[in-house]
Structures are given as C-alpha cells and as structure tokens.
Amino acid sequence: MVIARNPDPDSALPFLLRLPLGDGLLFRTKGTWPRTGALYCHPVPMADWPERPEIVERVPLRACSRRGAAIDVVADRSRESRSQVVFTRARGRDVVFWQSPRTRKQARPDVRVPTARAAGIDELEIVVDAHERYAYRFAGQQVRTVRRALSCGDYAVAVEGEVVAAVERKSLPDLVGSLTGGRLRYALGELAALPRAAVVVEDRYSRVFALDRIRPALVADGLAELQVRWPTVPIVFCETRKLAEEWTYRWLAAAVTWARTESAALARIAAVDAEQTGGDGAEGIDPQPEPSTADIRSWARAQGLVVPDRGRLGAEIRAQWDAAHQRRPPGRPADQSLWTPPD
Q1: Which of 32, 50, 255, 334 has the greatest number of C-beta atoms within 10 Å?
Q2: Which domains does the chain have, with CATH numbers?
Q3: Dihedral sign, CA of 218, 192, 250, 169?
Q4: Model confidence over 307-328: pLDDT tens digits?
Q5: Rounded CA separation 337/244 (Å)
C-alpha cells in the first residue's frame, strides 16, 4: 500500500491511496490512516497516479483482498494493522469509506451538536496537554486552545493562573488497557486533587459488555470500584468522539463559571450566617465552609508536605491546615487562644 500527496492543489482530499488489488485501485482521501474516524475515499482512475509521486508512506501488507462490498487491508505491523475499504451508499449515491476496527465500532447517532456558547462565555480558553495526540479542535465553538504540559488530564481550564478543572480523554481500548494495567487508578487519584475533574470515554457503556479479549465483568467491576473510591471524578460515556468533544467543551465552561462564582457565593453565605447568629463568637459557629480532603491534600502538597495519594489524611495535616486558615476544629471554643494544634 502506497500513500502519496495529491498533486491537485484545489482538491479537499490531500492524499492518494494506492492499493495492490488486481491492476491496482486508486483513491483520493483525507488522511493516511483511519485513526479517529472513517475517511471518505473518492475513486479515481490509475492514470491519475503522478509520474513522480511525493511518497508519504509505504506500508507492507500481509493481506489485501476483496470480501463482498469491502476490501480487507492488513498491514504488516504490530499496531494499526487492520482496516477496511467499504463500498456503500449514502444519501442516494455510491460512496467509499476507509475505516478501522476502532472507528467502525463508533455509533453514528442522528444528532447535531449545538453551536451556542457554553455558559454564555464569549471565548473559552482550554489548555491542551502537550503530550495529547489527535487532540480535540473544538471546531465551530467559541474556544481558544493553548498547548502546555499538564500534571494530570488532557484538557483543562484555569482561573487566575490556577487549574480549576481537567478532563481525561479515553477511547474504549485505552480505558480498558489503563484499567487492567493499573494506570487509571493513579490517574484518578491525581485528578481527585483538583477542584473539579472528569474522565470522558469516546464510546458507549454497552460496548464494555461486547469485549472479547477480556471478561466484561472484570472491566465493569473495575469501573464501579473506581467510581466508589473517587466519587468526585465521574467517568462519562459519550458514545462518539464528536459527542465527547462537545461534552468536554460544555463541562469545562461550566467549571470556569463555577470557579468564578463559587468563592464569592460562599463568602456571601458566610457573611449572612455570621450576621444572623450575631458573629461566630456569639454562637460558636465557624462561618467558613468545611474543606474537602482534596482541598487539604492540594494545599499540603503546595506547602511541600508529604501526603498520600488517597485515603484519610493524618490529624497533623488537618491541624496545620486549620492553623494556616485560622479555623478551629469542631467542639473547640471560639477563642483561638484556648487551643493549640497537636504536635
């Protein structure tokens, strides 16, 4: 199989795909392999093959044979080896698609994603991890992307320079591999340290029970156990890559709105509470909201303290948090001078 650049500058399909079937088949196509979606192929006569082609890739094949309305193409390599060129009909005309097992499994729901701004934000800045391959482009949405290394997650949003939410993207094969290999457990532990985080899967949950190389119950139980252990990091199945991208955009926009308004709202609630009770000294009520374990863990790491990735935090860590934020533990008198943090 040979892939060359299309010499026609006016064509929207920049590559030529040449298959060694019979006297040869030639297609114009959009990509060099169907990695994230099926590629449309336009058949052209072999005479369109240039005399001096600009070769992009030569792929040795183990098999290239016609089977019904499809051509099975098996590359001689360990990854991205199986694909099909399928002849079908769409909207009343003959069309050809080049697809792989991953793209074939994706559903194609008859829906249109909205183009309205998420959370009313004119332009959302999304940080894309520098190591993310085939990243979402958020085309058609009011988004500006910047690339830089993220400590966890593939997409994130920041407020005043601080990351307030992140999304980890997974295909179903990647989800299963990271789950069975143990990497997903550590990834969720890191995501849980952020104020908001989620995992989005580019497939349907029902596909878990169609797995044939691993017991589906093992995967389902593993996902359930992770959700119980880290309930603040939801794992969301979005059926297709396109819908997963849309969900990521709107979820991150909502997280930015939350981060900008939540602190102010909590301050107003605390002020009203203090006013209604006559101040925190009158009733012995602490107006500050109770911090979450993730908040304390994130603060402790910023101070250079060693804390576990999961589980309960030691009393000394909580005491240092209380002292730094001028809080008193439950049951202690309002007068801060009457108690001291434990050693």
Answers
A1: 255
A2: 2-105 (no CATH), 118-258 (3.40.50.10130), 261-338 (no CATH)
A3: negative
A4: 887 777 888 888 887 888 766 5
A5: 53
